[in-house]
Task: structure prediction
Amino acid sequence: MDLSKTMSLLVHISRFVAFAFVAGMVLTPALSSQTAKVLIGDACYNELQQREKRTLWSYVAERRSDNHVFREQVIETVEVPVRHLLAVDGNPPTSVQLKEENDRHQELLNNASRRRAIWKQQDNDEKMMAELLRIIPEAFVFEDLGKEGKSERIAFHPNPEFKPKTYEQRILHALDGIVLVDLQDKRIARLSGSLGTRVVFGYGVIGHVEQGGTTEITRVRLSPGVWKTSAEKIDIDGRFVMLKTINKHQDESRTGFEPVAPNTTFAQALDKIAKIDRSASSKD
Result:
């Protein structure tokens, strides 16, 4: 396994636990562990079906990084997403920041092979997530904690009898936490999890991921059968020999979701951003 890819997937794995339990869960108080396992198996199957649809959306993201708050318009495409800077710390982006963004966009627009490479990595990530979905029922034990409002509260913990085979499975298997499931739509409403143990690779020679890393994910219903992540906060620390220190501290919220036409390309999304900017300029 390429260690650089392993590092890039750490955040994806943290997010992934939320998706792993999505759909197909009709819970009642005091479920037996065996019944919960069957329900989780159904949830994983349904999530696999949902992920194959890959609908496209646009939204406004607000992310906190390096003591700054960045507000961006994001448009998903069939290639790579377009992220357009709207504000930094509440102020309009500078001409220098906009030029840097435009240069990045133009470089991608004129480099089809680069776009394909990014898409391929995203597709590989999706395949890896599908593989992890299939092990969830065996990798964890589940405990029903009763209702909370219109959701069911479920605890998940590593199954001591499960033997992970890959770096990704080992990181996933170290997570435990709480998930809230919306009972009307049978979808995840909120999840919080943490790494209960320090995950060591190659007896520590290759690297490790520190105990205590956390993930918090909130999801919102957009339409029947469609839920998207509206907020995520991820804190993971560790070290790989080839990659030095790993620091993944991500805090992002998303609002204003709007559907994007199927098959929207990177170029079309850039055109849409340009039209939005022209419209905003004409109103000033």
About this structure: The helical segments are 3-8, 10-20, 33-51, 95-109, 112-139, 167-173, 266-283. The radius of gyration is 20 Å. The CA atoms of residues 221 and 227 lie 4 Å apart.
